[in-house]
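Researcher: Here's the sequence for the chain we discussed earlier.
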Amino acid sequence: ESFFRDRVTAAEAGRYHLYVAKACPWAHRTLGVRALKGLEKAVPAFYADPYMAENGWEYAQADNPAGIRYLHELYARSGPGYTGRVTVPVLWDSRERRIVNNESSEIIRMLNSAFDAFARRKLADLYPEKLRPQIDRLNERVNSGDRGMDGLLDVFYTALFTYGAGAVELVLSN
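Model: Thanks. This is the structure I predict for it:
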């Protein structure tokens, strides 16, 4: 359901920001790559409150660069008239004041390559050319499943919001 699918063409430290929620497994993918590469200073992250509010993901931090309270405000700025789901993660361009991308698999690829000059830890390519077909197949299965089944993250997310964290912990402990 990702709507904003642009790319970072000229990365700059501090220009781009991640808007995430700890409750979202897709957001964790971006945070993981960001941490592995040591991009915390180059690409700051802003965390939503732990529980989704009546108006969606809420950002209580007054210091977030977009000056928003609710994530839907970023979506409204980036796509006037947008009526789709408001999801995290979001990669925000603070100079152009728009959402660059809200698809976790694409954001992690940008963090992997476009921001390499700012990485405090130089790693091997996390998306090597010869492994891309395998990575893409696995990513498809994780995201949207196959044979008509939900993706693994969809199942996790559904359990979390339908039955609460206790159900997820029970599943993970088995």
